[in-house]
């Protein structure tokens, strides 16, 4: 019997996006069947307000739930665990997931399913609409997958041409070959990107002879995997091999990447936490006022990928021996005790450095509202 169990991360809270477009009235809200009609059109009718809600939720999920959501399996296995899914899109009896998937994978999918509805409870109504319509459910999950991937790919592309400003040492710019250059010159084929992706414990060896280190990696005599924290997530001056949490997740590079994602490219690298000109990042778009473990993990994964030699996002989640999915989980596991001072201090530090603009924007809106409300 598939069961749902809570994890420590469920103790953290996060502000979801606005659950309903302001122009949706109660009549439109109750007409859920229009969502099925909108999804049936080719392409889907994006003017449908229910579909707009689904799209907004899907675009929010990579940063605040996971960039690796398997929408199809998460919804199918989750609904099956609740006894709400009887047949697949071919009209055949839906197989017991425990007979086709590893138990641990099933539990991960169920946890993701419940996490989605805990963060975005209004989506439950839409899933209920399709519980006896597996074909419609498939269209819904494909639509969500498309828009979630679009956000992740947008961040990937934006960082691809921006990280040269963050990767150099001592304030210097790194030459990654310009906008038209392939990423194949990055990774361990480039000194700066190689050093930042090098395990922190190997930095001295790397600095001594980086070309030799590169050759060892290329010949697989030096294995780079997700279980060794890379240099890019550390504030090097605080690194202590006997206390791996010292300086962990406080590296300038990873902070700049996270600020780039959540507060906009013009804030990355600034020494202050105040507002800047230019388009706001995801923090402002989603009115995010506090940093969560998922936000940090999302940025950490992008930081590593932006430095790698892979040109496109790995659909299997792997770069050779490096597993991005497990790397993401490793970051989340750092926050398995919300009462740990290390966790609370780190989250407060990130909130100060990435969400101050959003808080200021929220206060200004509240002030204007007070002044204009009779």
What does this structure look like?
This protein is mostly helical and 374 residues long. The chain folds into two domains: 8-152, no CATH class; 161-368, no CATH class. It is built from 18 helices and two strands. The chain has helices at 26-30, 33-40, 49-64, 71-81, 97-100, 103-119, 123-129, 134-160, 164-167, 191-197, 203-208, 210-218, 252-263, 282-285, 293-307, 324-333, 341-354, 356-372; strands at residues 318-319, 322-323. It has a two-stranded antiparallel sheet. A hairpin with a 2-residue loop joins strand 1 and strand 2 (322-323). The model is unreliable at 1-29, 271-278 and 357-374 (pLDDT under 50).
């Amino acid at each position: 019997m598939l069961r749902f169990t809570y994890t420590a991360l469920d103790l953290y809270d996060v502000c979801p996006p606005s659950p309903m477009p302001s122009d949706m009235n109660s009549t439109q809200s109750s007409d859920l069947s229009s969502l099925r009609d909108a999804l049936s059109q080719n392409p889907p009718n994006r003017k449908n307000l229910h579909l707009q809600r689904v799209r907004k939720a899907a675009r929010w999920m990579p940063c605040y739930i996971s960039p690796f959501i398997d929408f199809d399996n998460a919804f199918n296995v989750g609904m099956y665990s609740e006894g709400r899914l009887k047949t697949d899109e071919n009209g055949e009896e839906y197989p017991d997931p425990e007979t086709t998937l590893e138990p641990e994978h099933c539990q991960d999918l169920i946890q993701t399913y419940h996490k989605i509805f805990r963060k975005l409870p209004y989506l439950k109504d839409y899933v209920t609409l399709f519980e006896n319509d597996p074909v419609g459910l498939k269209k819904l999950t494909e639509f969500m997958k498309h828009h979630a991937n679009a956000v992740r790919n947008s961040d990937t592309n934006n960082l691809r041409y921006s990280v040269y400003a963050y990767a150099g040492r001592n304030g210097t710019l790194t030459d990654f070959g310009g906008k038209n250059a392939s990423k194949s010159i990055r990774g361990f084929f480039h000194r700066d990107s190689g050093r930042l992706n090098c395990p922190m414990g190997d930095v001295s060896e790397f600095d001594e002879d980086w070309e030799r280190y590169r050759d060892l990696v290329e010949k697989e005599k030096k294995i780079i995997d997700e279980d060794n924290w890379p240099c890019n997530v550390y504030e090097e001056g605080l690194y202590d091999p006997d206390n791996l949490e010292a300086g962990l997740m406080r590296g300038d590079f990873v902070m700049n990447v996270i600020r780039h994602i959540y507060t906009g490219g013009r804030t990355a690298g600034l020494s202050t936490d105040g507002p800047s000109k230019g388009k706001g990042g995801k923090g402002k778009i989603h009115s995010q006022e506090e940093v969560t473990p998922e936000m940090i993990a999302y940025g950490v994964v992008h930081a590593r990928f932006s430095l790698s030699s892979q040109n496109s996002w790995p659909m299997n989640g792997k770069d050779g021996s490096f597993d991005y999915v497990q790397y993401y989980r490793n970051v989340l596991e750092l926050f398995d005790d919300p009462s740990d001072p290390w966790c609370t201090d780190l989250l407060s530090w990130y909130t100060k450095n990435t969400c101050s603009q959003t808080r200021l924007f929220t206060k200004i809106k509240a002030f204007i509202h007070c002044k204009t409300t009779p």
